Amino acid sequence: MKFCFDTKTFIECDLEPQKLAVVGVDESLTWNQFMQRVNTLEKDFKAKGLDKTGSPVMVYGHKSAQMLVAFYAMMKLEIPYIPLDKFYPKERLQKIAEISASEVVINTTADRIGITNTNEVQITGYEINFIQSTEIKASQEKSYDPLVYIIFTSGSTGEPKGVQISSEAVQSFTRWMSLDFGFSATDVFVNTAVLSFDLSVFEVMTFGKLGATLLLNSKEQTADPNLLIPRIEEFKGSIWVSTPSFAMIYARIKNETRLNSVHSFLFCGEVLPNDLAQKLKTNYPQARVLNTYGPTEATVATTLVEITPEIIEKHKSLPVGTSKRESQLLIEEGEIIIVGPNVSKGYTNNATLNAEKFITIDGQRAFKTGDHGHLEDGMLFFSGRNDDLVKLHGYRIELNEISSAINDLDYVLHGETIALKRNGSVKKIVSLVKTANNDVSSTQIKEDISNILPPYM
Ligand code: AMP
After folding, report:
1. Helix, strand, or coil here: 176?
2. Which residues form the pocket of ligand 1, taking CB atoms under 6 Å from any ligand atom?
3. What is the Cα–Cα distance from 226 to 217, expressed in whole angstroms?
4. Which of 304, 307, 340, 372 is the most exposed place for a label (fewest CB within 10 A)?
């Protein structure tokens, strides 16, 4: 079985009824069970009239198979979904609900969320429980290219911004994944990123496109090699997907036969250091190292290159590769512009920023990335940014969003946030704060902003 992203239906394609679709932290679902659960949720949504919503649906939880059921059910209903990890503080969830005008949240946890003015639908297995009910206002207008998902990233104005990804973009992305990466239905994707980050879209969409298996791993499991490695061994994980920072500790491990099933290390999101690629090639000689590049605004990634020993030898700063076949890269005054069907339709309800960042080139959507780069040997090389957006441990952070949260505290007179860098990469984020009274400790400030910002900020 696999999922067709053009028709948004399941397709029978093999005779292995016990093959796993999703291994979540809650339960494992075979392809048949996965399809049944998706279809049941779709039916229940229709029965309750929730499919009429003209707004995106939030899906809340942490690495559960149930979240995947919700994503695919929303895709079938052509309702855009907003993936939200449990680590977001309530105020941020409330803000996201307001920005997106969302009327429904699917809660896959046992706790209540309680966002005001939303219908909370709590689902566990086949059980569906409507906790809170407000009237569905909008009716759904069908678009020829409906949105599939909206991922919220850090925003420089102090508000998170929602990147809208359409069906055309997802189809283009999944075609590229199935044609150019050498992956197949027998693969098992090892997930590391939380499902509210665009990095996870690699495995969330591609396992469906190929009819492969998705192995989700909790925060605790990903933080501890003694938990993650046995899981990869047990489920024969074959494609490792992470940021380079995340792979650092694993790259150092020598003679780890329990990772022999991994045939590809797939990276995106930040600079892949030359010595990391080198260590992986030495310690896991059976595996390919794939570097990809791209912002959330262009559907996960736009370029790809396999990092070979020759490339490691020749380029101290590794390339990020060549463009996917349906898209195009332009470099204008050093800035990388991405053109093509994978480019987002813009940020949710943010006309000012959309006018600044999204343009049209030859009738196609284009995104001004703010990244700098150059072409060499037919490949793109990334050379940094010169704005407020930084990556720390693979997380995308607008420094001004932190400053803004600090400046909103009533005892703060002024706050500024800076990134401390070594060799071009961010090592630490520091905020300098002037308060009205000297009794306030930095612990107090951190505690207060943790009600507004996610932990990684
Ligand atoms: P995100 O939207 O979280 O995927 O972050 C996108 C940003 O991460 C890009 O605009 C780049 O600044 C950076 N980035 C993504 N991939 C790479 C890569 N392979 N090498 C260097 N930087 C990258």
Report:
1. helix
2. 153, 198, 268-272, 291, 293, 295-296, 320, 369, 371, 382, 385, 391, 396
3. 13
4. 372
What ligand 1 atom has the least distance to the C-alpha of 267? 19
Per DSSP, what are the bridge partners of residue 372? Answer: 335
Collapsing DSSP to helix, strand or coil, 305 comes out as: strand
Distance 39 CA to ligand 1 centre (A): 35
Q: Are 213 and 236 in contact (CB under 8 A)?
A: no
For residue 125, what pLDDT is reported?
77
Token pair for 400: 């001004």
Position 363: which residue type?
G
* Per-residue pLDDT, 87: 93
Please list, in sequence order, all residues whose beta carbon lies within 8 angstroms of the beta carbon of residue 453, skipping any fewer than 6 positions away.
89, 92, 401, 402, 405
Strand locations in 320-424 (E):
322-323, 328-332, 335-339, 346-347, 358-361, 364-376, 379-385, 389-392, 395-398, 412-422
What is the distance of C-alpha 314 from the center of its chain? 31
| pLDDT at 139 (0 to 100) | 67
For residues 105 and 261, what is the distance between their CA atoms, to the nearest angstrom? 37
Q: Can you tell me whether residue 412 is helix, strand or coil?
A: strand
The full DSSP string for 111-128 is S----TT-EEEEEETTEE
Place of tokens 């409330």: 94
**121 and 130 Cβ atoms separated by less than 8 Å:** yes
* 314, two tokens: 């020749």
In ligand 1, the atom with minimum distance to the C-alpha of 369 is 10
Give the chain's residues under pLDDT 50. none
* Residue 228 CA, ligand 1 centroid: distance in Å: 25
Give distance in angstroms: CA of 295 to centre of ligand 1: 5
Per-position b or e across 379-393, b if 16+ CB within 10 A of its CB? bbbbeeeeebbbbbe
pLDDT the model gives residue 140: 57
